[in-house]
Amino acid sequence: MKLYGSATSPYVRKARVLIEEKGLPVEFVIEDPWAENTPVALKNPLGKVPVLEIADNDFIFESVLIVHFLDHVDGRSLTPRDPVGYWEAQRWQALGNGMIDAAIQRVFETRRPAAFQMPEKMQREEARIQRAVKLAETNCKGNEFLVGTRFSLADIMMGVALQYIDFRYSHDWRSQAPKLAAWHAGVTSRASFTKTLPPDFTPPQTAAVAPVVAALALASVEPATVAPQEEPSA
Ligand SMILES: N[C@@H](CCC(=O)N[C@@H](CS)C(=O)NCC(=O)O)C(=O)O
Q1: Residue 207 has what pLDDT?
Q2: Which CATH number covers residue 183?
Q3: What mean pLDDT is predicted for residues 128-135?
Q4: Among 54, 81, 210, 224, which is least packed by CB within 10 angstroms?
Q5: Each residue's pLDDT tens digit, 16-55
Q6: Do both 68 and 94 map to the same domain?
Q7: Ligand 1 midpoint to CA 68 (Å)
Q8: Cα 29 to ligand 1 centre (Å)
Q9: Structural contact between residues 106 and 130, judged by C-beta atoms closer than 8 angstroms
């Protein structure tokens, strides 16, 4: 199988993180849908990436469908099986996908010639992202993973969405969302995330703070199980 896409697209990255997590034999082929004479439209009439080639000249497009396909292709799904976990994960994925859509729309707006930019459009997308972060913080339980005790598609979608926001709409969402920030620092330190970072992007240095925040969250539930933490060094 081959996955076609650009190295910066968060839609493509969702699939790439999943491929890395599962060690699937999928070759990543860089194809820029914006380039002149791009061959993307020959694979996907909508002219967008990601595109997954599942057999010679047989293509799947739309990232949600591609992720669904890759999740089930090897019988080792990263979707929780219990009904409560299943729907929790679906809801996280809907939130993550919507955050990516909003961040992308905002990026497009910033790239229009200054005279044609609409500040109200930009603010509308930013407001979507802020509300989404707020909901995510409310629903985040302060655990290692968003759903249950296993890494799931929920972690991929939300991890990629928030890291895309760091990449293209860099702002301090962490101070408003400490549980989410702690979870995000943990999940994005996985090899699947570090190996698929956009080129020339250095994520904010949050790792030193994350364990302390996580421990504080845990301490409020089970104080006896938490060892004293050292202050992060300056
Ligand atoms: N709904 C699509 C969106 C994909 C998408 O918009 N991809 C962008 C790259 S980030 C693209 O290929 N844009 C090319 C274009 O709009 O012409 C999906 O989830 O796969």
Answers
A1: 53
A2: 1.20.1050.10
A3: 98
A4: 224
A5: 999 999 999 999 999 999 999 999 999 999 999 999 999 9
A6: no
A7: 17
A8: 16
A9: no
